[in-house]
Amino acid sequence: MIISAYQINNVLRVYGDQLRHARIPNKTKDSNIPQSDKISISAEAKRKAMIEKISSNIIDKIIQYGPNDNIEKEVFQKLENEYGANLAMAKKSPTELIFKEIDENGETINSLSVEDSKFLKHKLEEITKETLNNNMM
């Protein structure tokens, strides 16, 4: 049996047309439905994200204006209790804090080292998150 090129060409053309027509209805059905990505976040993850955001705002306020609100005063008092002395903060640069140990009169006793200041800033972040977590229950 001899199969000509014309016949093979017709078979391939019809097969291609069938494939195209089979795919087009699927695309038109899907394109009419707006598709949106859905992200499901657990309640615990939402809570942690909220605590992170609020604690960041509280720390920024403490750094810029000092502890003014009740929660800010509570957090800073916990930091001072943990350190064991009265503290004051000063910005060395926009990203770097320096803590100072002060006496009852507000006089600076000594400035803490950069490493100690970084540790106290980290501790301030931990205490703030912990306090917010406890207050949100």
Q: Structural class from helices and strands? A: mainly alpha
For the largest sheet, list the strands in their spatial order: 1-2-3
Largest sheet: 3 strands, antiparallel
Strand content: 5-15%
What best-fitting shape do the alpha-carbon axes yield? Answer: rod-shaped
Describe this structure as you would to a colleague.
With about 140 residues, the chain is mainly alpha-helical. It has a domain at about 55-135. It is about 65% helix and about 10% strand. It contains 4 helices and 3 strands. The chain has a 3-stranded antiparallel sheet with strand order 1-2-3, with helices on one face. The protein is rod-shaped.
Helix-strand layout with pairing:
Elements: H1 5-32, H2 43-65, H3 70-83, E1 86-91, E2 97-102, E3 108-111, H4 114-135
Antiparallel strand pairs: 1-2, 2-3
Helix pairs in contact: 2-4, 3-4
What's a quick, concise take on this entry?
With 137 residues, the chain is mainly alpha-helical.
Which structural traits does this protein have?
single chain, mainly alpha, three-stranded antiparallel β-sheet, rod-shaped
